[in-house]
Design brief:
By secondary structure, the protein is mainly α. The protein has a domain of about 140 residues. Helices cover about 80% and strands about 0% of the residues. The longest helix has about 40 residues. The mean pLDDT is about 85.
């Protein structure tokens, strides 16, 4: 059943009718919220994957930092990555918790507020890449090169870092542009759907 059909059934139910109709409306509400959660499955699974990868990467970084605790040139990039990884984990976990609290037990107004918050978080997450990509991509390369190939990128001087950061600013801008041009379709459809529902006071 599509959002348009559910909206029509919901809004055409007469609140003055008997208990059977009210029960039917509750059933429609349950189906509606199930449809909303289904539309948000992409966000849910993306968050789950990012959390799993984030936990693995955090474990790797902690081990790397411990092994190179006496080498500031490698310890500092590792600490920077640990901080941003923790931030990402907290962000993704918070987003996932919010998704799981959207259910038929909540009011339509509450669900609308949560979806609006998710929409704002989506925009915030995209725009944060303008800082994250330029600031943390070089430390990422430094750590990965040292951990995987035992190569110190510092041996190549510092010019590559400046060039790389400058290039990453352009890349970040392109990534953010496309993320904002093509936001999550299911989230927007869910917001539009709930906005049209009329809930009894």
């Amino acid at each position: 059943m599509e959002f348009e059909q559910l909206t029509s059934i919901w809004n055409n139910a007469n609140p003055t009718l008997d208990q059977t109709v009210k029960i039917n409306k509750e059933l429609v509400k349950t189906i509606s919220f199930s449809k909303v959660k289904s539309s948000l499955s992409e966000i849910k699974w993306t968050s789950i994957v990012q959390i799993v990868v984030g936990i693995w990467f955090l474990d790797f970084l902690l081990g790397f930092a411990f092994r190179h605790h006496a080498e500031p040139l490698f310890l500092i990039p590792a600490i920077m990555l640990i901080v941003i990884t923790l931030y990402s984990l907290i962000f993704d976990i918070g987003q996932l918790v919010m998704l799981f609290t959207i259910n038929a037990k909540a009011s339509v107004a509450e669900a609308q507020r949560k979806l609006s918050t998710l929409k704002k978080l989506e925009a915030y997450d995209a725009y944060s890449l303008l800082v994250i990509i330029p600031l943390f991509s070089a430390p990422f390369l430094i750590v990965i090169a040292k951990a995987a190939a035992k190569v110190s990128l510092y041996e190549f001087g510092s010019q590559w870092i400046y060039s790389y950061v400058a290039g990453s600013v352009v890349v970040a801008g392109i990534v953010v542009f496309f993320l904002r041009m093509f936001p999550n379709k299911g989230l927007q459809e869910s917001i539009d759907f709930l906005r049209e529902l009329k809930e009894e006071k």
